[in-house]
Amino acid sequence: MEEMQEMQDRPVRVGEKAPFFNMLSTKNVKTLADNVTLDEYKGKWLVMFFYPLDFTFVCPTEITAFSDRIEDFRNAGAEILGVSTDSVYSHRAWINMPRNQGGIGQINYPLASDMTKSVSWNYGVLIEDQGIALRGTFIIDPDQIIRYIVVHDLDVGRNVDETLRVLQALQTGGLCPMGWRPGTATLQA
Fold first, then answer.
1. How does pLDDT run across 25-70, given as a tens digit for each residue?
2. Which residues contact 21 (CB under 8 A, 6 or more apart)?
3. In the chain, which ranges are continuous DSSP H helix?
4. Rounded Cα distance, 168 and 54, in Å
5. What are the backbone dihedrals phi and psi of residue 163, each rounded to the nearest 5 degrees, phi first?
6. Is the pLDDT of residue 181 over 60?
7. How far apart are CA 167 and CA 115, in angstroms?
8. Of 60, 87, 94, 136, which residue is least crowded by CB atoms under 10 Å?
9. Are 147 and 21 a contacting pair, CB within 8 Å?
10. What is the pTM of this model?
11. Residues taking part in catalysis
């Protein structure tokens, strides 16, 4: 069962410790008995993204794009976690439905259920009157510090290539100019 998370006074900011979470997930899509916690990602980079709802139009394009690129993220030492306020049962139904029938099919990372909406609140993406999350992307470093936050409107999907590029730029530890790509020089201070 999902544990109730403590609600923070304000959302987290870049440079702060990532708020703890413990949510039911689809790590075991058959039993739905495995929670996912922030502690599991200690020592790894985590790309955690929030999306509004299962069985919608834009969300599957993002979820499947991250899944299709999982090896690129893992090669960069990062894991991916998708989060919405839907139940794990809704997540499972969506995963079990083929992509060509409106589902997302099998994906290569877990989806977590923030039914209490406390995780969405703590990360600053909850639309309270609708009970859903905005499209928020967070890159959390191996010390569990938030290094990147992008939150935007429900109607526009995020760019997986840009998320991967920012992750790789953060990992350089250097000053990366606009448009920086892996293999190019960082700036000297």
1. 999 999 999 999 999 999 999 999 999 999 988 988 999 999 999 9
2. 5, 36, 37, 38, 112, 114, 119, 122
3. 59-68, 70-75, 88-96, 118-122, 160-172
4. 29
5. -60, -45
6. yes
7. 28
8. 87
9. no
10. 0.93
11. 59
> Which tens digit of pLDDT belongs to each residue from 155-174?
999 999 999 999 999 999 98
For Cα atoms 10, 159, 48, give the angle at the middle one, nearest 5 degrees. Answer: 40
Write down all domains in the chain, each with its CATH number in brackets. 22-172 (3.40.30.10)
Tokens encoding 37 = 């916690």
Q: Which residue has the higher pLDDT, 65 or 177?
A: 65
Q: What is the dihedral of CA 139, 1, 28, 150, to 10 degrees?
A: -20
Which residue spans within the chain are E strands per DSSP? 22-25, 35-37, 45-50, 78-84, 111-113, 126-127, 132-133, 135-140, 146-152
Contact (CB, 8 A) for 25 and 83: no
Query: Cα–Cα distance between 50 and 11 in angstroms, integer?
Result: 14
DSSP-assigned beta bridge partners for residue 46: 79, 140
Longest dimension (CA), the chain: 52
CB 25 within 8 A of CB 34: yes
Burial zone of 11 (CB within 10 Å; 0-12 exposed, 13-18 middle, 19+ buried): middle
For the chain, what percent of residues have pLDDT higher than 90?
79
